[in-house]
Amino acid sequence: MKSKKITFSLAERLLNLIAPRSCVMCGSRLTISENTLCADCNMHLPRTNYHLSPTDNELVRIFWGRFPITSGTSFLLHVPSSASARIIYELKYGNKPQIGLSLGKAIAEEYLPTGFFNGITALFPVPLSRRRLMQRGYNQSLEIARGINTATNLPIIDGAIKRRRFRSSQTSKSRIERNENVANDFKLIDQQKINGQHLLIIDDIVTTGATIVALATELLKAPNVEISVFTIGVANSLVA
């Protein structure tokens, strides 16, 4: 995440004094110019740099033979119980949707000069079921997409796909169980919204790829659709 010169208002400075923010990884107090992560944690993130070779990297290869993927990237390698794993955990389970918004924006700003978003016409966050959305209170993938939208102005498509149900969390399941858990979960309900689009599927983490494969397979039922993928993390065990 490249730093840039920012002017802060007196109100922002006072708010930072009254309600100091902390780094989601190490818990240290953030300066007014830092957001979500302190500079030291940001510097030591296990970045993948897949965006520098978006059509052939470890993430993209996960999906070869499963659906026709154009390009893809994951921002960092996800190692359970590591310091950086707290980013995903707090985003999904810590009631902190602002993490998705700020990270989506910062990562998009970092990737824009490399041309990663060239050719993408719309953002497509992985939808949650109504039950899961009520439980969590927000869709973390949508928050990431909103951050990317802020930096790129790419539109977010909503309402083209319905997620039928939430059966159980993917967290502790095997690869086969994950595939079965999301099989037939997505239903295309408005193909006019995605006809002819190059969609960037947005998700928080890829562990086996089952959710993205199920969603992409349904999206590709609409004519002339192209699929790329963007996630915050990819399981280290999946690409090692």
Characteristic terms for this protein:
2 domains; alpha/beta; 240 residues; 6 strands; four-stranded parallel beta sheet; two-stranded antiparallel ribbon; single chain; Rossmann fold; 10 helices
Concise account of the structure shown:
The chain has 240 residues and is an alpha/beta fold.
Describe the overall structure.
- Helix content is 36%, strand content 16%.
- It has helices at residues 10-18, 39-43, 58-63, 85-93, 97-111, 130-136, 140-152, 175-182, 210-219, 236-239; strands spanning 69-78, 122-125, 161-163, 186-188, 198-206, 226-235.
- Helix 5 runs parallel beside helix 7 (140-152).
- The longest helix has 15 residues, at 97-111.
- The protein folds into 2 domains: 11-44, no CATH class; 46-239, Rossmann fold, CATH 3.40.50.
- Strand 5, helix 9 (210-219) and strand 6 (226-235) form a beta-alpha-beta unit.
- It is of the alpha/beta class and 240 residues long.
- It is built from 10 helices and 6 strands.
- The strands form 2 sheets. The chain has a 4-stranded parallel sheet with strand order 1-6-5-2, with helices on both faces. The chain has a two-stranded antiparallel ribbon with strand order 3-4.
